[in-house]
Amino acid sequence: MQDIKELALAELQDQLLSYGFPKYHAKQIFSWIYQKGIIEFSSMSNLPLALRNKIGEEFYILGLKLADLQKSSDGTTKFLFELEDKNLVEAVNIPAARRSTGCISSQVGCKFSCRFCASGLGGFKRNLRAGEILDEVLYLKNNTQGTDLTHIVFMGTGEPLDNYENVLKSIRIINSCDAFNIGARRITISTSGIIPGIERLALEDLQIELSISLHAPDDKRRSQVMPVNQKYPLKDLIRCCHEYIAKTNRQITFEYILIKNFNSGTDAAQELVNLLKDLRLAKVNLIPANPVPELKIMPASKPEIEAFKEYLFKSGINVTLRQERGEDIDAACGQLRLRHGQK
Ligand code: SAH
Question: What is the Cα Rg of the chain in Å?
Answer without folding.
Answer: 21
